[in-house]
From TrEMBL:
<dbReference type="InterPro" id="IPR051783">
    <property type="entry name" value="NAD(P)-dependent_oxidoreduct"/>
</dbReference>
<dbReference type="InterPro" id="IPR036291">
    <property type="entry name" value="NAD(P)-bd_dom_sf"/>
</dbReference>
<dbReference type="GO" id="GO:0005737">
    <property type="term" value="C:cytoplasm"/>
</dbReference>
<dbReference type="GO" id="GO:0004029">
    <property type="term" value="F:aldehyde dehydrogenase (NAD+) activity"/>
</dbReference>
<dbReference type="Pfam" id="PF01370">
    <property type="entry name" value="Epimerase"/>
</dbReference>
<dbReference type="InterPro" id="IPR001509">
    <property type="entry name" value="Epimerase_deHydtase"/>
</dbReference>
<protein>
    <recommendedName>
        <fullName>NAD-dependent epimerase/dehydratase domain-containing protein</fullName>
    </recommendedName>
</protein>
<feature type="domain" description="NAD-dependent epimerase/dehydratase">
    <location>
        <begin position="6"/>
        <end position="201"/>
    </location>
</feature>
Length: 365
């Protein structure tokens, strides 16, 4: 019998890297998308990650990948895609909204999808649900406690996204406890580009947006002030290391080894002040400083940043005891000043090259 994998959110930063890391271990991979899928585009994205990591995806590996719209998922659709059974499900996709007016829609999307996936796919090995560290409570800057790998710790449901993720965890955990369903929650910090190789995907989410703002700051010889607590250490993870950790957990599930219900993926090796110092050192000037926002170079960015950075400037630290026991040390997500600076400078170089190519094309036209 073939081992089959189902993944949601495979077109995003985390989902693409994760699918590439898991692909060699499965006979068939079904990607579920929010709208009509562009299977060839999804394959190309996964292929770029494989090539950057030194794996040739053209040798039949990408042929294992197929896609369906999430709304069209039924038992018949699964069979039609060649999946008579499902070994693992990785639920990476989510509806991201901080708009309180979209609370009902966000909760519906982020709770109904994982429950439906678990029911329809009924994975033999494990259902891995990508959650967010926010469910452990962003907390106050003065809070300096350790968060165990366990059910929710002092939740602060500050926006629809966190609230919906919190509710999804509760529902999945109840199913796990009452039915014995093989469910694991993986709580991620903020995910940035790869440490092991140059970024190969265009993605405007999270820290990629910050890099684009830094590019504007550098071009204007100005400084960008962000509203973050200097001493706090928001959890960060490089996407390639994150994918390697997930692949290690997937392998444990495949071998029938113990797999825990909760994991925290994302280390806290940098304070906000250390991250700013790393950026400034890498760019050769002071371009980033911490404190109350002074000049909004981009009002949309300033608005999002005010919510995101304040939300992620948490005062807790993670207990990685369970993760350390289950994942090789080399695969544990870590971000240090050098790797953070490499990410920033690498992304700036890509942005500069892309803008230069656009200018040349405009002149030629």
């Amino acid at each position: 019998m073939s081992r089959n994998l189902v993944v949601t959110g495979a077109g995003g930063l985390v989902g693409t890297a994760l699918t590439a890391a898991l692909l060699p271990a499965f006979d068939r991979v079904l990607l579920l998308t929010a709208g009509a899928p562009d299977t060839e585009r999804l394959r190309r994205r996964i292929g770029r990650v494989l090539e950057a990591a030194g794996t040739d995806g053209r040798d039949g590996l990408l042929d294992r990948v197929t896609a369906l719209p999430l709304d069209g998922l039924t038992p018949a659709a699964l069979r039609g895609a060649g999946l008579d059974s499902v070994a693992q499900v990785w639920n990476v996709g989510a509806s991201l909204s901080y708009d309180q007016d979209k609370l009902a829609a966000t909760v519906a999307a982020n709770t109904a999808v994982p429950l439906r996936l678990l029911e329809l796919c009924a994975p033999d090995e494990r259902f891995f649900h990508i959650s967010t560290v926010g469910v452990t409570g962003p907390g106050a800057p003065a809070r300096r406690e350790t968060v165990p790998e366990a059910p929710v710790w002092r939740p602060d449901a500050v926006n629809p996204y966190v609230l919906s993720k919190l509710l999804a965890e509760h529902m999945l955990d109840n199913l796990r406890a009452h039915t014995g369903a093989p469910v694991s929650m993986l709580r991620l910090g903020s995910v940035i580009g790869p440490d092991g190789h140059a970024a190969v995907q265009d993605n405007r989410a999270g820290y990629y947006t910050l890099v684009e703002m830094l590019a504007k700051v550098v071009a204007r010889r100005a400084a960008l002030t962000i509203d973050a607590e200097p001493g706090n250490a928001p959890p960060l993870a490089h996407v390639d290391q994150l994918a390697a950790s997930c692949a290690a957990l997937a392998d444990r599930a495949a071998r029938g080894a113990e797999v825990a219900a909760y994991y925290h993926l994302g280390d806290q090796t940098l304070t906000n002040a250390a991250a700013a110092d790393a950026v400034n050192a890498a760019l050769g000037q002071e371009v980033l400083r911490l404190g109350p926002p002074a000049t909004a170079l981009d009002r949309a960015y300033a608005s999002v940043n005010a919510d995101n950075v304040a939300f992620m400037s948490c005062g807790f630290r993670f207990d990685h005891a369970v993760l350390d026991a289950h994942v090789p040390a080399a695969a544990r997500p870590r971000v240090d000043a050098d790797s953070y600076a490499r990410f920033v400078t690498g992304q700036l170089a890509r942005l500069t090259a892309r803008r230069g190519a656009r200018r040349e094309a405009a002149v030629a036209a």
